[in-house]
Records
---
Amino acid sequence: MEKVISGIRPTGNLHLGNYFGAVKSFIEMQNNYECMFFIADWHSLTTHPTPENIRRSVRTILAEYLACGIDPDKAPIYIQSDVKPVLELYLFLNMNAYLGELERVTSFKEKARTQPDNVNAGLLTYPTLMAADVLAHKADKVPVGKDQEQNMEMMRLFARRFNRIYNVDFFKEPASFHFYDKAVKVPGLDGSGKMGKSEGNAIYLCDDEATIKKKVMRAVTDSGPTKLNQEKPEPIQNLFTLLSLVSSQDTYDYFNDQYNQMTIRYGDLKKQLAQDINAFCAPIRERITAYQNDEEQLARIAKQGAEKATESAEKTLRQVREIIGFRPY
Ligand code: AMP
């Protein structure tokens, strides 16, 4: 079975955009591939989080991914910093990664521009750490968005370069992978653009019923259709897109017909949408709380993941050390 590995940025609570854009595919992937998921806490150090911040966000992400349906018995989920052999590979790869090529990476240039007083070496070598995370397990595929495509190219370059330097056929080149043919874009409720943490327009999986309702009822709309069967302007289309994700086909068709007939009442649509979002989130929310309150279980799952991932990475590293020339006397 092909190996798929995916890193998760520990950047706070999951929202509907994360769920339908990424997490849902992970849940399906674990049934079709040999999957591993890790929470990229080393990577997060580039922005200098506080210790408390790291602990809390890693724990939150772990609880939320499990609540969404990652099954640690099918797909190990581990914390990046628990798997030390990856650090060694990071060091080895850095020896053959060149300043010029690292500086040319778009995401590095972007960060250097937006945070000029914190252009640290971790930021520069982000692609080598990402390569180490994946190559340490000799994964076949990595599910990535467009923004990670260049990092994937660097990863393949490092793999090829290692093979060439040592004249081996050791690392395979991991492929970028899109589980769904068409990427899902979950819109926000503010009329345009996508749902996102930094946009401040997100509905979180852990939001309670009242919060969901408040957010949905505030969604931007217009004064209603003025022609039969007219095309929906973006704010309205966004509500229908959300409806298509969380509501039944019947509900969707009902409001769609009402829109086409110009009899729609946005208040009713929003009430239904809020109700359906809540129905979707409620079981996940309950499981999030259950995991958050069960520190022991989280620790056990993280340990189990770390053991599997360390075993896999250590196996690769034993061979890498041998290839490079680090042999025990
Ligand atoms: P972020 O929370 O921005 O770090 O996003 C993590 C991942 O969630 C991204 O790589 C996307 O795959 C997915 N994602 C985030 N927001 C959306 C959205 N509004 N629509 C679809 N996918 C999203």
---
Amino acid sequence: MSYVISEECVSCGACAPECPTQAITEGDDKYVIDPEKCIECGACADVCPVGAPHQP
Ligand code: SF4
Ligand code: SF4
């Protein structure tokens, strides 16, 4: 399953440049992950200060 970003996201932007497949973009009120691009590496979760990226 692709990672998803929860409502905890504070839109700091730290995760996007860490994603090897450019799956993360800024959404309307939080960052979002394109499930078609996510390879489940966990890099976004490692850098997120609030633990928003997770696997459902
Ligand atoms: Fe990108 Fe890896 Fe996070 Fe998926 S788990 S969105 S591939 S950084
Ligand atoms: Fe949101 Fe975490 Fe990404 Fe920052 S690192 S934009 S809080 S998901």
---
Amino acid sequence: MSKLDQIAESLMKGKANDVKALVEQVLKEGENPGKILNDGLLKGMSVIGERFKKNEVYVPEVLIAARAMKAGMQILQPKLTSAGVKPIGIAVIGTVKGDLHDIGKNLVGMMLEGGGFKVVDIGIDADPQKFIDAAKTNNASIIGVSALLTTTMTNMKAVVDALKASPLAGKVKIMIGGAPVTQAFCDEIGANGYAPDAASAADLAKKISG
Ligand code: B1M
């Protein structure tokens, strides 16, 4: 098995220390940082994403794999930056106003990072304007809004409306998700896309922000 495959395998098993050590080793051996990212870390993370979608692995496995991904990224990030490897996009994510649930949103953030996005997480209970301001400041291409309560999902429309009223209208896309959210609701409020789970969110973000 190649060292890059070993990175992917260790990441899938959530072995953060092994991932870190292997990334350090292949960098020392002169491997290209972009290749380490794509053929090692992202390869492993996308397998986990697919398995998660099929219910072959569950939230804990994804969190552990994402932690291993982060460990590898800590070593790789400075090299990627100096090698000029750019993120495929910038995503602002947050949980809607009035809502304190963040486990799903954090998973979405990890899968987006795993998918090559730079993620700016504005946290929970976020005002509509906070999403817009963060998108503007960070030059984001996508805003991801999460809601877990039937009483707060309606606040997602305020984010869509705030974007429409801002100079970012048409340039930045809004993706929504969370247990009570549906495609029909997404269509109703005029968001650009709905994803039922974190792995689909990463796929959708690539599709709509391109
Ligand atoms: Co709350 N809670 N909670 N809670 N809580 C639910 C959501 C609930 C369904 C429980 C129940 O009654 N059966 C219910 C909502 C009922 C409803 O509205 N229909 C509920 C309630 C009522 C409440 C309170 C009102 C309880 C009270 O105080 N009386 C209160 C509200 C506080 C507030 O937000 N203002 C409350 C509080 C809490 C805790 C603080 C205790 C805690 C949150 C801790 C935290 O997040 N840091 C909590 C928890 C843990 C839950 C449950 C048990 C688990 C939620 C979770 O993390 N799931 C939940 C019941 C349940 O779901 N079984 C419940 C795991 C997570 C990975 O899944 O978030 O769905 P999920 O994310 C998925 C997808 O939805 C999707 O991807 C993720 C991964 O696949 N996804 C996106 C999520 N965001 C996305 C964004 C995207 C795309 C996909 O694009 C941007």
---
Amino acid sequence: MSSPASSDDKLIALAKEAREKAYAPYSNYNVGCALTTEDGSVFTGANVENASYGLCICAERTAIATAVSQGHRKLQTVVVVTQSSPPAAPCGMCRQTLNEFCSEPSKLRILLVNVDGEEREFALDDLLPHGFRGEHIT
Ligand code: THU
């Protein structure tokens, strides 16, 4: 059985690999994401920019859309790799998208890593307290 630490290391390596595929010629800010879902599946993504800047897609939402479009809707651990120090946290739009696809925001692990190996860990509800969810719509 693999330990959480070694599975985190594997996920970090996958996020770094995904970051190599970032298409960010406008910002030169490359982001990679790797995530696991509750059924143990793994998905990755990178940011994809556009000359029409408003069309840029973040790495996190690329990875989430890949998971969801393949039928995996319950995120468990999300690794985001950037070049920032301290490692950058997901933007507001990505936080809300993460919130849509987790059982409980307090249980969704968000592991932030940079290319120099600095790491920070949060739960989604640290980053998005009192988030809006489907169950609020009555
Ligand atoms: N970016 C991400 O991929 N994730 C975030 O959470 C924040 C920003 C990307 C979007 C854009 O391609 C570049 O970083 C600069 O904003």
